[in-house]
Give the backbone structure.
Amino acid sequence: MLGFFSNKSTHPLADAREVKRILAEIVAGEPQSAVEEATAWLESLTANESFKLAQRLELIFKLDEAAVAQARRLGRDYPALGSTSRAAETRQWELSHGYWQQLAAAYFDCLAGYRAAEKEHDALRPQLPMLYGRLVNALAARLKWMQFRYGPVDPEFWMRVGGVYLAAVDAKVAQKPLQLYPGSVESSIEAEYLKVLLFHATSMDNLQPLEIEIAERFITHFLPHFSLIRELLRENVYWVDAAKPLPPTRLAKHPEITPTLRFFNGARAVEAVATTIEQIRSEGRVPPGINLGAQYEAAKVIPVLEHLAMCWAPKPPMRGNVRHRINSPLKVVNGLAAVHQRLSGRSAGTQGFETWTVDDVSLGGLGAQAGISRNDWIRIGGLVGLQPEGGDNWLVGIIRRYVRTTPNQASVGIETISKTPRAVFADAGGLQTEALLLDVPEVGEYARMALPANALEDKVTLVFALDDKNARLHPRETLSTGADFVIANFFVQSFS
C-alpha cells in the first residue's frame, strides 16, 4: 500500500511499518484514546504537504477503517454518561464530535485537491465513490453528535452534504453498490444521503440521547422501504433541494422545481414499523435480524418505533390543543428537588431559577426561548417547575422538545403535567420522602405523584399531612420516569 511513498518525507505515516503499528494501536486501544489518536493523525495528514494526494487519501481511508468501530462504540455508550458524570459526558461529546468533524474535513480536503489538480484525476478517479460515500457517512455521524446536544445545525451543513451527493450524481456513481467498511452491509452514496435526510425528518429534538441512538439504528434497518426520487407524486411526503442550505421539509406546498430537487416518503416504512411493533410485543424482544448495536428492553424500543411511525406517516401529527402566541417572562427551576423546595417554601427569592421567554401557550403546555447556561441542564424528559409572570402559583412540566437555535439560545417545548402541584413530606414505610402531589386527592379515585427516582416501591403506602388532613395513598402503575423522578398513579384510600 505504501510502497510509493517519497523517501524524503519524515512524517511517521510515510513509513509502512509505522503505519501498521499505529493502525493496530487504534484498533486495539481503549475507545476514547483510540479516537483521540486517530483525530490527531488525521489533523497531521491534512496539514502535511509532503504526501501526494492519492497517498494522503489512502492513509485517511486506513485511519477511518481502524477507528470506525471505536468511534461508533463511543456513540453507543454516550447516552448513559448523562446520568453519571456531566464532565465525562462533555469530554466524550467533544472528542467524538471533533473526530467526525476532522474526518469530514480530511475528506473534503482530498476532494478539493482532486478538483484543483487535473493530473491527479486518473489516480483518484477509481477512489471517488468510496470518497463520496465515506464523506457522507462522516457528515451523518457528525449530525448525530450535534443532535445529541440538540444542535444547532448550520444551514451550510445541508449545502455540504447535498453537494457531495450531487457530485456523485454528476459522476454517475450515486447509486453504485458500495461496501463502505470491511464487514459492513452493501450501501450506496444515495442511500447514505437518504439516511441523513431521514435522520432529520425523524424529529430527533423530541428524543433523549438513548432514543436517538436507537432511532438511528432503526433508520438503517428500515431504509430499504424508502427511495429518493425526482418526480413530484401524490404520495410524496418530504422534499429536499440538495443544492440549497435547507433541511428536508414536509410537502405542505409544491416547492420550486429544480434539477436538484428530490422527494421521499415513508408509506411502506410505516407498515413495516407497525409489523415490527406487533412482533416485539408478542415476543417480548427485538427480533434477532434487527441490529441495534446493543440489547434493549422492549419497553425502551417500542416508544421509539411509535415515534418513527408518527414522523414518517403521510399526514403530520395534529396538535391536541390550539396554541396562542404570547411573549412573556417565565421562571423555571430544574428537577424534582428544586421544585419541591419552591413549593414547600424552603427556597425563595431570585436565586435558583432561570428566566425564559414564553412563545406560545395551550391547554397542554407551552413553548419558550431559553438561554443556555454554563451547566446546560436542559434535557428531554426533564422535570421542571414553571411560574408565569404575574402569578404566585407554580406549574410542573416535562421537557418534550429541545432545539438549540444558536450556541447560546434554545427553543424548548414543555408539556404541563400539573397546574396545582403540592409539595408533601410523605412517610413511605418509615422513610421520609419528598414528593409532589400532582392532582387534588379524592377518596376512591386516583391521584398522580412525582417521587425521587428510587423512592417508589411496590405495595409501600404513602402517608402524609396536607391542609390539616391526613392522606393515605397506595401505589398503582408507573406512568413515566426521568433521571431524578418517577411519576405514578396512587389510589386514594383516605383523606380526612
